[in-house]
Design a protein that fits this description.
single chain; eight-stranded antiparallel β-sheet; three-stranded antiparallel β-sheet; 8 helices; 15 strands
């Protein structure tokens, strides 16, 4: 199983139930949030697995309607208008964790980098875009979200895939499925079963084989996608335009959303700063680290 950062794109899916496989596995494969999605179930009946897969697909569509940078999502409306009235519980939960990780990483994790990312992608002057970056100007309220300065915009690409994996874990639990592996761009393993996983670099070389059990794993590859007119810039951008210090970081944690945000930020941080951040999340740990 390979782990690489991918961008939000579109959603399509197909379901396969294959009880003849070892351990009576049931598997669903598709695409969501710009990533290949695979759901693998080791327990339960084919009917229970099919019900899980059907609800998982509905959940993924709902997540895209909230967090995609494309179409008419809640995030697109927030970026276009600078405000979002009556945000969903999910949107507030994601942004509150983003705020927590922003503080723990001393600002390295900052979803307001979207204007800077766009300027870099298009080869434009980054100075004006950098002036629009600043999490302190994102105001979260139960009944509204406000972006304080015109032109500000958020990207949740460094946290929403993890949220999706966690949400699908909740769906699996509702269907009383205990042994499940969710790969939604980031991994979430449920139950006591051991799942063999593989971290690969953008060039396809194997970085590490490891076993995942009742835990989440996220991998950020700074150059897994390249941007800019020449296609030579990392797609992970620091809030002051910093370049990545690491080409790949994998972090595991109890939550895929937390692991996702931490691995994204860690690409930009020194090793001492990463260690200090992880001290604030004692069950999170580095699984792979490759210098840029």
């Amino acid at each position: 199983m390979t782990l690489q950062r991918r961008r939000f794109l579109a959603l399509s899916a197909c379901a396969l139930v294959t009880p003849a496989l070892a351990g009576a596995r049931h598997r669903w494969q598709g695409v969501a949030l710009g990533a290949d999605v695979t759901l693998t179930v080791r327990d339960g009946s084919p009917a229970a697995a099919q019900a899980f897969f059907a609800e998982a697909l509905r959940s993924l569509r709902a997540i895209e309607r909230q967090f995609s940078l494309f179409g008419g999502s809640d995030l697109r409306r927030l970026n276009a208008l600078g405000r979002l009235a009556y945000p969903s519980h999910d949107m507030l939960a994601v942004l509150r964790l983003a705020e927590q990780v922003h503080e723990a990483t001393n600002g390295a994790f900052d979803p307001t980098v979207q204007p800077l990312w766009q300027a870099r992608r298009l080869g434009q002057d980054e100075r004006a875009a950098a002036a629009l970056v600043g999490w302190e100007d994102v105001h979260l309220h139960p009944d509204k979200i406000l972006l304080a300065r015109p032109g500000m915009a958020l990207t949740l690409n460094g946290i929403a895939q993890g949220f999706a994996a966690d949400r699908l874990a909740e769906v699996a639990a509702r269907h009383r499925l205990a042994e499940v592996l969710i790969d939604a761009g980031e991994l979430r393993a449920l139950g006591t079963a051991s799942w063999d996983t593989r971290i690969e670099g953008p060039d396809g070389h194997v970085v590490r084989d490891l076993t995942l059990r009742n835990r989440a794993l996220a991998t950020s590859a700074a150059y897994g996608t390249r941007i800019g007119p020449l296609g030579n810039r990392a797609h992970i951008v620091g809030p002051a335009g910093e370049e990545p210090r690491w080409s790949l970081v994998s972090i595991s944690a109890d939550s895929a959303m937390l692991a996702d945000a931490l691995s994204t930020a860690a690409v930009l941080m020194t090793r001492p700063a990463i260690d200090k951040t992880l001290a604030a999340f004692p069950r999170a740990r580095i699984e792979a680290l490759i210098a840029a």
